[in-house]
Design brief:
The chain is of the alpha+beta class. The protein folds into two domains: 8-195, Jelly Rolls, CATH 2.60.120; 204-309, Orthogonal Bundle (Arc Repressor Mutant, subunit A), CATH 1.10.10. The chain is built from 13 helices and ten strands. It has a five-stranded antiparallel β-sheet with strand order 1-9-3-6-10, with helices on both faces. A five-stranded mixed β-sheet has the order 5-4-7-2-8. Helix 10 (254-272) packs antiparallel against helix 11 and helix 11 crosses helix 12 (289-300). The longest helix is centred in the middle third of the chain and has 23 residues, at 173-195. The protein is elongated, with a radius of gyration of 23 Å.
């Protein structure tokens, strides 16, 4: 049975366990600066007010960020951000810890010293143990310039709400901050897809009339009905043309993607603990619990029973 209302990106974000978090929204007086090491988490900065400079690790290009600019490092790339290239910089985690404890290291108590910038900082987290093409194709760096994107004024308005909720928490602020940060991530991905200038990769595949439709059909599958031939028929391409295009855009053959998705869905069913093991095996395309268990362990390195007990 196929559900034509399936949202593939929503399915993928749920599978990779996307979570968004805002560390702080703080006023900085000059001089100020942070060194951010490379890591597994994605990171973002928003210049709520003022301006600052940013430089990527292993790059000589100095970026000037203006009020309303949004920058993101979906793969956790190293960089520094500061009011000036010559300012002393502190490790980012030290800055986060001090701000969260009420001791902003870049606040000047002298009333004559004005705020140089208001910066919103946060992170995007994913389950990096999942080898999904979406994660593999995440861009290293995204920069949304306010002066070049007047059509995204609604996004900057949302960011203002996010910054207000971060600075002045009220009942429900925690869930609002998480959800708005996740909305920010989705918009960053949409912006990247629209402006990347290439037609390969998983994000581009979602928008492709053939492969996007095939992904929708795969994610809507409920009963292991699909095959490569049926997918090709569904998007009106020959089997060869479909397989070639799917492999180039998604980064793996359609049969492998279909098997991968069935296993990810089976894992979710096991964690929800609402279906019997036999029903889950059948939905994944296996005629017995034993064959399903063997394939599942080969895929995840744990047995279905271990996942269910966890």
């Amino acid at each position: 049975m196929i559900n034509n209302d399936t949202d593939v990106l929503a399915d993928v974000l749920k599978t990779i366990r996307l979570t968004g978090s805002t560390y702080f929204c703080a006023d900085f007086s000059s001089p100020w600066g942070m060194d951010i090491d490379a890591g597994e988490q994605g990171l973002f900065h928003v210049v709520v007010n003022g301006s600052c400079q940013l430089q990527l690790a292993n790059s000589q290009t100095l970026l000037q960020l203006q009020q309303g600019d949004i920058v993101a490092f979906p793969t956790g790339g190293g960089h520094w951000i500061s009011d000036s290239k010559t300012s002393d910089r502190l490790p980012s985690m030290e800055v986060v810890e001090k701000i969260l404890s009420g001791k902003n290291p870049f606040t000047n108590p002298h009333p004559a010293i004005e705020t140089a910038a208001t910066i919103l900082c946060g992170s995007f987290s994913y389950d990096t143990s999942i080898q999904h093409p979406f994660l593999i194709d995440l861009p290293c760096f995204i920069h949304i310039k306010a002066v070049e994107t007047p059509e995204l004024e609604w996004l900057r308005s949302m960011v203002k709400v996010l910054s207000n909720e971060s600075r002045m928490p009220s009942p429900g602020s925690t869930i609002m901050v998480h959800r708005l940060t996740e909305v920010l991530f989705i918009q960053l991905m949409r912006f990247h897809t629209h402006n990347a200038g290439h037609d390969m990769g998983y994000i581009a595949a979602l928008a492709d009339p053939h492969i996007g439709k095939a992904l929708n059909v795969i994610h809507a599958e409920q009963d292991a009905y699909l095959s490569v031939e049926r997918l090709a028929d569904a998007v009106a391409l020959s089997r060869t043309a479909f397989s070639d295009k799917f492999s180039k855009m998604v980064g793996m053959p359609p049969k492998s993607y279909l098997q991968n998705w069935r296993m990810q869905r089976a894992k979710a069913y096991l964690e929800e603990n609402e279906l019997s093991m036999y029903d889950i095996a059948e939905k994944a395309g296996y005629s017995s619990e034993a064959s399903f268990s063997k394939a599942f362990k080969a895929f995840f390195a744990v047995t279905p029973g271990q996942v269910r007990r966890r």
